[in-house]
Amino acid sequence: MQNLRFAELDIQGLLRRIEQELSSEFGKGQVCTTIPELQTVPGSQFGMAVATVNGDEFVIGAAETPFSIQSLSKVFVLEKVLQITGASLWERVGREPSGLPFNSLALLEIEGGVPRNPFINAGALVLTDHLAANHATAEKAVLQFVQSLSANDSIAINERVAKSEKETGGLNFALAHLLRSRKSIAGNVDQILDTYIRLCALEMSCLDLARAFTHLANNGVCPRSGQSVLPELDVRRVNALMLTCGLYDGVGNFAYRVGIPAKSGVGGGVVGVIPRVLSVAVWAPELDAQGNSLAGISALELFTKYSGWSIF
Amino acid sequence: MQNLRFAELDIQGLLRRIEQELSSEFGKGQVCTTIPELQTVPGSQFGMAVATVNGDEFVIGAAETPFSIQSLSKVFVLEKVLQITGASLWERVGREPSGLPFNSLALLEIEGGVPRNPFINAGALVLTDHLAANHATAEKAVLQFVQSLSANDSIAINERVAKSEKETGGLNFALAHLLRSRKSIAGNVDQILDTYIRLCALEMSCLDLARAFTHLANNGVCPRSGQSVLPELDVRRVNALMLTCGLYDGVGNFAYRVGIPAKSGVGGGVVGVIPRVLSVAVWAPELDAQGNSLAGISALELFTKYSGWSIF
Amino acid sequence: MQNLRFAELDIQGLLRRIEQELSSEFGKGQVCTTIPELQTVPGSQFGMAVATVNGDEFVIGAAETPFSIQSLSKVFVLEKVLQITGASLWERVGREPSGLPFNSLALLEIEGGVPRNPFINAGALVLTDHLAANHATAEKAVLQFVQSLSANDSIAINERVAKSEKETGGLNFALAHLLRSRKSIAGNVDQILDTYIRLCALEMSCLDLARAFTHLANNGVCPRSGQSVLPELDVRRVNALMLTCGLYDGVGNFAYRVGIPAKSGVGGGVVGVIPRVLSVAVWAPELDAQGNSLAGISALELFTKYSGWSIF
Amino acid sequence: MQNLRFAELDIQGLLRRIEQELSSEFGKGQVCTTIPELQTVPGSQFGMAVATVNGDEFVIGAAETPFSIQSLSKVFVLEKVLQITGASLWERVGREPSGLPFNSLALLEIEGGVPRNPFINAGALVLTDHLAANHATAEKAVLQFVQSLSANDSIAINERVAKSEKETGGLNFALAHLLRSRKSIAGNVDQILDTYIRLCALEMSCLDLARAFTHLANNGVCPRSGQSVLPELDVRRVNALMLTCGLYDGVGNFAYRVGIPAKSGVGGGVVGVIPRVLSVAVWAPELDAQGNSLAGISALELFTKYSGWSIF
User: B240 falls in which pLDDT band (50, 70, 90)?
Assistant: First the structure.
């Protein structure tokens, strides 16, 4: 596999080049329309942050502006569940790409209530239930986990976004009630929806996110604190799950175009991992038809194209 | 990314260890039942071959026994199409995992006749049509391509297997006629089915296959001949497609358990690629419920577990 | 079409014969398991009532024991909606058999939130919303309608059954939230579910039901009160809807075996209409795999077989 | 049920009125596009014929012009199969409306190769196979059956239409191969397709068709020959199947609007049955989105509206 070429590669210059080339991408997509509170976010913002396994950090644009992480929270929930309950979660959720949009009820129904993977909404709802059954304060556990990974105690839930999603998020309510009717969720539906929605409403910046993902590029060890977050094998598995299931029904194209494990959220964030090298977070609120950040994906494509980094 | 540790790692010893540990895996699966001629193959055979980017080769068991490559041929067809027609193929076939069994007509129908990816049967039929439209003798072109990659002119089509599949393969006939009715196939249905089925009936050994895939671990260059088979970017993309679409509806579990790009066939072969290190081919005819080689997948899991090689 | 042969046909004798022949049908099905409160109902009960367009009535067995009408309420809701809002309801719900179980979310999703017909749960939820939007007290309106049709003021909602269904009926909650997320329901989800579930929990006897359906056999006129309930054309249409959509995914077999418009409920009730002759209600709590009363359908089959009455 | 009112009702005057009112319906639909040979048929033609159980006949327009009966042949195949093999056919084909377009492969697949009913293409292919397995010359048997019912020996297969459909009918080929792969068809796929397509290419006039269906209105007895074609119970069942499955995914709307058992074909023919009264055939080649004759359905709607005849 490739040598690290930090010395040779000017990451800061690379970020500048990407920012320049991206300018034509704005105005083509649409800011998330399903959550009213997110519709007010100006669409043409852009930020990007890199955190290397050596501890170096690089930022450009609005890299320190907090935004709604939405589905990116699913990675943190999965990691926390792995920490607390280990492999028992795989009795309740699968590991296959869904082949369908992230909020598909049809697929779920066909398969009797077992969600395809932890990164579709149904899967994350089941994980939230699993976490709540094994931990008294699931929300707090994940929040502290994230604050610790990012070394930023000010990370918090945006109450307006949570409220907005609760008022309009009918589909997640449908999913949760369906899962309950199939006995895939054991706990109280309203409480699980509350925890799920509140964790989606976490606000973090690109720099926070790059930091929070660095251990996934570093065999499970946070390069800043030196602490082991997850065993090496689990880290590989989380990366594998991101590659096959992290971008909804756009995973195949993303693997083809960009070639690294990544997870996206409808707030416009995308975070990628280059194993044994670095983590990289982008934010650009305009989304494509699959609900992935349009400029965010282009930025990561340019990043791997110009750096030559790819897992393939 | 990881350093090459050929010096440190005793690959031959690793293969011996895998062969030993696998003994308990036999008798659990079932030799391919859909093609009568393949049902006669003894189930407990096992072979494995490794070909490194340095040109080294390692074999164990029945690594030089030719077997029916079946869907492994889809990789060669894809590569040949990329060589001859470039990216134009992506107008006719997608790049997303199907989320359904490899021979699903339901999925195909829902999406109006555009197959999800080149590695499901429908996708390979469209590629065969694409190749036939751009090359006078599609079958011969792929055969020579394979012989050249494996440096083995004796590689040939098993006529009995081809005949057997033609007599029983109703589902591929249904797929081809459906694709024709959706104008997804332009050529003569019977000719395309003939070419498709004959290329599935190619017989190669593990060693042939490991050699034929080495360029995918070596940025597109065959380490033996020094010739460039595909540009580096195309190689990454073929690897990405194998990872997200190469094992039918078992891709997610394979990525999770094994963590490398690979392609399987119902003849019991599986070939994996560890980028910038080596290619590895296994053969064990008994299949799991998804149609993947049971012991073959276990062998690759042990291979990456003991070597520490993973793209994640 | 057939002559009325009331004089010749001994309806009371026919009911006795049916009761006798049915004895072997009990113990083969299962009392409704989805609503805990209904599980306590003894399975081997049987009642049957006939109300002719001449005003004659015939009963046998437990014909005057009230039971949970469940989906039979969907006919009353449809009629009330037709009375109040006329054809405008057809902008919100279709008129085609679903081809799938009554509680299918998959189908609903595929079709963008427009339920197939008024007799699947999704369709009845939309009608309940439609009624609530056009009438201040939807529940009271339907209750009074039913009491008036049956000439029985003591007909009431079983509060324990309503409570039981609310506590367990996750699937209806999922459906309602899904419909809300597709804008197919405009009102408050919890209120609509409450009205829907309470009307399903109405308790009526076979005699009540036979009386309440007689106008559908009598061109819309109640033979007892002489009042016109619905115009003749609407009556034909309600009968047509019952024939094509009234027995979930068992409509085709029922039309083939029994040959009259009918509607069933998971409480074990089935009510049939022989246009221009009579209405007939049966109750037998054990259900078949489609959720239809096992002995109830057999009773109606014997009824049309021995009487020779059929719309075909 | 209704009294016969032949004396009172001026059927010839009714046909004239319908012809007049229909004039605005032409030009709104599209002549069948899936079979090239049928595309050349002028779209604005119209014919209608009535044959009563008393033996009276009424015609208007092009009622004696032969046209391609297409799916109307499915009724004749079903009747012939019932005559020869009795109820054994129901082990191979269901009796439920499909809820999906007539040529759906998705549905078929979900249900493991057992077609939903005899009037979708898959069901008719299975019946053709069933007939061929029980009768040496299936095609000839059906042809003679039709000629006898219509008292017209000149009824024949249009060889150009059969050839045209064979050259383009990819979807039926896909269906047949799929059914073969599921063991739902036992015979030779090409021969069954040949018989199926040739019987679809039968040409009959409205008068031929009205005559050929009269026994379905007359308890199974042909009023002209006095011969019993099918037992009374089978006749009711064929009528029930037409009502629930005879108009593809438009059965519910047709039952609602028109209210009689009927079968349509993409050649623009529709034949209805008013039990114990008459049969009525219409021809108007322009089709609606479901593949049913646009003016044909309107003609039948006016016919039942003005006559007051309805099975509901």
Answer: very high
| Fold exhibited by the domain A72-200 | Beta-lactamase (3.40.710)
| Bridge partners for C287 per DSSP | C30, C293
- For chain D, list residues with pLDDT below 50: 1-5
Residue D134, pLDDT score? 82
Spatial distance between the Cα atoms of D53 and B132, rounded to a whole number of angstroms = 61
- How much helix, strand and coil, in percent to the nearest 5, is found in chain C? 50, 15, 35
State the CATH architecture for C71-200. Answer: 3-Layer(aba) Sandwich (3.40)
Which CATH superfamily groups domain C11-68+203-307? DD-peptidase/beta-lactamase superfamily (3.40.710.10)
Interchain CB distance below 8 Å, D96 and C2 = no
What are D22-78's pLDDT values in tens digits? Answer: 988 888 899 998 888 888 899 989 999 999 999 999 999 999 999 999 999 999 999
> In angstroms, what separates the C-alpha of C45 from chain A's closest C-alpha?
29
Q: Subunits touching A (CB < 8 Å, at least 3 pairs)?
A: B, C
Task: Assess contact for C67 and C269: CB atoms under 8 A.
Answer: yes
Best of D173, D175, D180, D183 to substitute, by most chain B Cβ atoms within 10 angstroms, is: D173
Task: Write the CB contacts of D61 (distance below 8 Å, at least 6 apart in sequence).
Answer: D19, D45, D46, D47, D48
CA distance C40 to chain D (A): 32
Q: Is residue B22 scored above 80 in pLDDT?
A: yes
Q: How far apart are CA C217 and CA C278, in angstroms?
A: 6
Instruction: Supply the pLDDT for residue B4.
Output: 43
What's the DSSP call for residue A4? Answer: P
* Minimal C-alpha gap between A100 and chain C (Å): 12
Interface test with C, best of A181, A182, A192 (most C CBs within 10 A): A181
The Cα-based distances of D194 to B19, C61, C142 in angstroms read 54, 56, 56
Do C11-68+203-307 and C71-200 come out as alike in CATH topology? Answer: yes
Q: How many CB atoms lie under 10 A from the CB of residue D135? A: 17
How far apart are the C-alpha atoms of D86 and D73, rounded to whole Å? 18
For residue B52, which phi and psi values (nearest 5 degrees)? -90, 165
The token pair that represents B16 in the structure block:
């011996």
**In angstroms, rounded to a whole number, what is the distance separating the alpha carbons of residues C182 and A223?**
46
Q: Is D107 on the interface with C (CB under 8 A)?
A: yes
Q: Which residue shows structure tokens 């008719």?
A: D124
The fold of A11-70+204-307 is Beta-lactamase (3.40.710)
From residue C6, alpha-carbon distances to C14, C51, C106, C267, C301 in Å are 12, 12, 47, 31, 19
Please determine, looking at this structure, whether the domain spanning B11-68+204-307 carries the CATH number 3.40.710.10.
yes
Q: How confident is the model at residue B101 (pLDDT cuts 50, 70, 90)?
A: low
Q: What is the pLDDT of residues A27-79, one digit of tens each?
A: 889 999 888 888 889 998 999 999 999 999 999 999 999 999 999 999 999 99
Q: Give the containing element (helix H, strand E) for B157.
A: strand B156-157
Among B110, B170, B180, beta carbon nearest to D178: B170
Nearest CA in chain B to A99: B99
The ipTM is 0.93
E strand or H helix at C283: strand C278-283
| Residues facing residue D58 across a β-bridge | D50
Given a cut of 60, whether residue B204 has pLDDT beyond it is yes
pLDDT 10s digits, C190-222: 999 999 999 999 999 999 999 999 999 999 999
Q: Which residue of A has its CA nearest to B309?
A: A1
Min Cα distance D112 → chain B (Å) is: 12
Task: Give the pLDDT confidence score for residue B1 in this predicted structure.
Answer: 36
Domain extent listing, chain B: 11-68+204-307, 71-200
